[in-house]
Amino acid sequence: MKNFNRKLILEDGSEYYGYGFGSMEDRITEIVFNTSPVGYEEIISDPSYTYQTVVMAYPLIGNYGITEEDFETEIPTIGGLAVRDYNDTPSNFRSKRTLSEAMEQYHIPGIYGIDTRKLVRSIRSLGSRKALLTNPDTTVREGIARLKRYEIPKDAVSKVSRKEARQYAAANGNYHVAAIDCGMKKNITYSLNKKGCNVTVLPWNSSLKDVERLNPDGVFFSNGPGDPENVEPAIELMRNLRGKYPVFGVCLGHQIISLAYGARVYKLKFGHRGGNHPVKNLLTGKVEITSQNHSYAVDMESIKNTGLEITHLNLLDHTVEGVRCKEDKVVCVQFHPESAPGPRDSAYLFDQFIEMMKEAKDGKKN
């Protein structure tokens, strides 16, 4: 057996020895876990993982290599990756290179060979917390001191949002959507394009005038990383948009919309991350299997007297998964209806958004 060349040190003093892949630089991040059995390409390229190291609960990672066409962003910003078994000889006709090679290019450190079951249980018991990925010579005392000195940056959304507006045309565009980019995944744009929506993606701190200048049929608030209360410009924009356009929000967008209506948010102990979370649609009674990636949730009690109605509930911990304001034509969910590689149970939400835009458009004609 070869000697360990990397290790994780957590705030509680626990250590996990393993082997490095990807970038070999030291990194301090928040450590979280993901329960998806597939989709590591989409996970490492999801902007919502900025400043986070993801522990993959599924043991075998890297076995189908990397195909950049499946990335959710052009330049991945994930903080790190921790896995049980890493496969450096992928078998997939679409693969262009190994996961390690891609991670090295984008300066993403990784560690494999650790007991991920133990680490996931630790995160569930003690919660998400800071972790240092470093070399095995770093002492626990030194590691904890470095962790105490380090503060996770609060600029995650501004780091990943585009700086200038960009248009994405649909083959047969019947509607125009202004999308507020807080760390928007590519599959959201693709999903809207497939439904006949031309999309103009705007920076996270765009103003009401920036939106009105486009004269859109609807506005979309995207997913993204970090604490939603750190994106006040987006919250203020949503306050100003109420009742003016149909609005659809996903993940961080759901939290932004809820805050704009006067609800509160709180940080979950270890968050929701994975493609297997059951959510009940209270409007239909159906249970949807959803893909999720978030650390914060909307406080249920705070929704009262805001004008919002709860539409979806998580069946694992009964947290709020969706709200709407029927009068203002506003709908938002905590999960990802555009999920790739899946599940696809919630794709109907894009159709609901289009129906809201159609009703608003028809109302203007009458």
Would you kindly provide a written description of the structure presented here, covering whatever features stand out?
The protein is built from ten helices and 19 strands. The protein has helices spanning 40-44, 99-105, 116-126, 140-149, 156-160, 186-194, 208-212, 232-241, 252-260, 348-365, and strands at 6-10, 15-22, 27-34, 52-56, 60-61, 80-83, 85-86, 109-112, 129-134, 166-168, 175-181, 197-203, 218-221, 247-250, 265-281, 287-298, 309-314, 320-325, 330-333. By secondary structure, the chain is α/β, with parallel strands linked by helices. The chain is globular and about 75 Å long. A ten-stranded mixed sheet has the order 10-12-11-13-14-19-18-17-15-16, with helices on both faces. The chain has a seven-stranded mixed beta barrel with strand order 1-2-8-6-4-3-9. Strands 5-7 form a two-stranded parallel ribbon.
